[in-house]
Design brief:
With 195 residues, this protein is mostly helical. It has three domains: 76 residues, no CATH class; 36 residues, no CATH class; 81 residues, no CATH class. It contains seven helices and six strands. It has a two-stranded antiparallel sheet. Strands 3-4 form a two-stranded antiparallel ribbon. A two-stranded antiparallel ribbon has the order 5-6. The longest helix is centred in the first third of the chain and has 20 residues.
């Protein structure tokens, strides 16, 4: 069974590219970023994100992608003032129209409220993940986050048993891509490995 090669993430735009294409892309991406920022009023311009330190070693592209994602998330995306989630410029404008506010996510995470999970160095709040119908800002209790935690534990067990070549960092990267959709991933993994 062949695995798809890991794409390397651009720290400026967040897109993935092959190892040979990333350097070529980043030259153009820097030019586009600067040109876009120059269209803004001088007080609202942001500097070019700093390049992350090159991460080599046994992690393959996983460590490099984690560093690129941290830089992309911290410098290229903007945080919502109400909830703390990060977005690109245009999606943030759309999000602001519907964000009810309440307690910002970042403050809840720092206080340690709710169940929280760490995937690939990022902390996600399991309780805040399930809003009922988008109205009233009510959070689901216990059941949803317990089921999600059980799905994550079961996914880790299956990957450990049937795919030992996947390191814990690889599994964390997979789980980070499927935050909030763990039950669907679990069904696919069970079908694949017959567990």
């Amino acid at each position: 069974m062949s695995r798809r090669p890991v794409g390397l993430m651009c720290y400026i735009c967040g897109r993935q590219f092959g190892t040979a294409s990333l350097g070529i892309h980043q030259k153009k991406c820097k030019q586009q970023y600067i040109a876009h920022e120059n269209t803004k009023p001088p007080g609202k311009r942001r500097p070019l994100p700093p390049a992350p330190e090159e991460m080599g070693g046994g992690g393959g592209g996983v460590a490099q992608n984690a560093a690129a994602f941290e830089t992309f998330n911290a410098h290229s995306l903007e945080a919502c003032e109400n909830c703390g989630r990060t977005f690109a410029e245009k999606p943030l404008a759309i999000h602001r129209k519907s964000c009810k506010g309440g307690k910002p996510v970042a403050k809840r995470l720092l206080k340690g409220e709710g169940n929280s999970t760490v995937y690939a160095g990022k902390k996600f709040n399991a309780k805040g993940a399930g809003l009922k119908g988008g109205g009233g800002g009510k959070r689901t209790t216990g059941g949803a986050s317990d089921a999600r935690g059980n799905d994550v534990a079961e996914l880790r067990r299956i990957y450990g048993k049937y795919a030992p070549e996947k390191s814990p960092a690889d599994v964390d990267a997979i789980l980070a891509r499927f935050v909030g959709r763990e039950s669907g991933l679990l069904a696919k993994v069970r079908d694949k490995y017959g567990s």
